[in-house]
Amino acid sequence: MLKLSSSCVLPLGEITEPMRIVRRITENPDFVLPLRSNEYLLIRKQTDKIGPGFAGYLFLEKPIDNPPANSYLIERDLSYLREGDIIRMDRRRNSLRTLYRKNSFHNSLLTTERCNNFCLMCSQPPKDVDDSDLAEDILTSIPLMSRETRAIGLTGGEPTLLGLKLTEIIFSLKSHLPSTAVHVLSNGRRFKDIDYAKSIAAVRHPDLMIGIPIYSDIPSIHNYIVQGDGAFDDTIRGILNLKSAGVQVEIRVVLHKLTYERLPDLARFIRRNLTFCDHVALMGLEITGFTKFNLEELWIDPKDYQKYLRDAVETLHHAKIAVSIYNHQLCVLDPTLFEFSRKSISDWKNEYMPECDGCKRRADCGGFFSTSKIRRSTHITAFQD
Prior knowledge:
The chain is an alpha/beta fold. It contains 9 helices and 17 strands. The protein has helices at about 135-140, 165-175, 195-200, 220-225, 230-245, 265-275, 290-295, 295-300, 305-320; strands at about 5, 10, 20-25, 40-45, 55-60, 70-75, 85-90, 95-100, 105-110, 150-155, 180-185, 210-215, 250-255, 280-285, 325, 350, 370. Helix 6 (about 265-275) packs parallel to helix 9 (about 305-320). The two termini are about 30 Å apart. The model has no long low-confidence stretch (mean pLDDT about 95).
């Protein structure tokens, strides 16, 4: 698991830059001189060349000589940083956060920690704080990103709580990264306002999808899971508004003890009422955030719900609705479902367990969240052929 945040940042000498700053990384000490003002030079060894004029300097080893202004000693856990990556430095907390990795296919940008749901299995427990600076960091980062970036995710919290600032972010992504797919994770409730849905559609992003969860065909079950009165009705209306405005929508279902039994019924509900949606993702449980506190209410071995999962996938597939299975290991899936399994776990938190050693299908397997050490299926077995 990569460490994306560090609070072990030691200023070295004079610091003249703002308390909070977003910068791009370069490892080239001969970087074009007029363009160095947005770049931090990453210096891996004491003997590496130090070019002048950079916005700042990140040392993985303490320098022998007096370093230039705006120099920092960072911990070795951040040695994965590479040319083109983007970080945020916050001197109020002596912290560094990796916002974007140029060579990763799994870049997600946290838009806010606020949310209008309180999901039992939330992996990013909401906070009632003013974190508007997160959106500003994103807007600063986007022009620094590589135009070859394949995809960007916008997560929360609930991104729609940014209001029109979310529209501004999507427009910036369209302007600076016109070939980059954008995926927004939302509970969908704010889109019950048709004008807001239309404001997102008006950006005319060429490859935008909104991922919205529905946890049951029965409103009271969905509302209980998200801990929000009226959430089911808001969400369905939001999906209808987005699709009527021409925005792609993915339906997401996290599979756990409260959702698995009615999964086939939910699939039939989607087939009857939401067949125009663009994708359905059936997702394994990530044991982090609120899930750890509600684990006994939520946990079921994935092997035990394969019949329900197979029935749901068959219903959706036969209705010609694109369907994928995320966050599952091949060895726990019914073999008829292998073709629907995707490697979906972000690379920085994707791991394999000791039981996977020698597995012949490891390269095709979705792997584990790093938190799966807390609880995982008792049926993990390496394929021998």
